[in-house]
Amino acid sequence: MSSLTAVQFGKYTKPVSWLVRVFEGFRTGANSLQSPLLLTVRLYWGLQFAQTGWGKLHHLARITDFFRSLGIPFPAINAPFVAGLEFVGGLLLIAGLASRLTGFLLAANMLVAYWTADHEALLAVFSDPGKFYGADPYTFLFVSLLVLIFGAGFLSLDAAIVKLWRKGA
Q: What is the DSSP code (8-state) at residue 153?
């Protein structure tokens, strides 16, 4: 404890010190759960992305027609691109490889999905949040942003590559 803390809290220095230690222990314990949580999110939602992309790859004619009905430009090009992005992006999430780039691309993909297929839900983000987070792209968008912002965590190929890179440097 600094002398400033002792002056500020006087006879309460010991209880405050105890509270600080308890909080620090709680914070350390909670921080240790970050990478396992990110791993769980990546594994589950990476699999969901990969399965969705795989399904689209095997039904490209139907997906192309759906994209055409939504007015998406160049549906014959965009359908396989989106299917491949979701499939490969899901696999990359599972592995924790190029995670932030993958999170960015998948988040952009989900924003386009909102804009084209769930436009009304997107516009209702503030007026009717339930409609927004009840739409199909919501959880996929949320997970993509989570990985974009926090990265893959220590339990990933990204972390292993950084560790090897630093050893060699």
A: -
